[in-house]
Amino acid sequence: MNSANQIWEPARSPAVVHFMPTIQCHCGAVKVSVEGAPVAQFYCHCNHCQRVHGAAYVPVSMYRAEQVKVLTGEPSMWRLHATPRATCRDCGTRIFAEPPGFGMRGVMAMLLPEGSFEPQFHIQCQHALLPVKDDLPHFKGFPGAFGGSNDVIDW
Ligand SMILES: [Zn+2]
Ligand SMILES: [Zn+2]
Question: Could you write out the three-class secondary structure of the chain?
Answer without folding.
Answer: CCCHHHHCCCCCCHHHHCCCCEEECCCCCCEEEECCCCCEEEEECCHHHHHHHCCCCEEEEEEEHHHEEEEECCCECCEECCEEEEECCCCCCEEEECCCCCCEEEEEHHHCCCCCCCCCEEECHHHCCCCCCCCCCEECCCCHHHCCCCCECCC
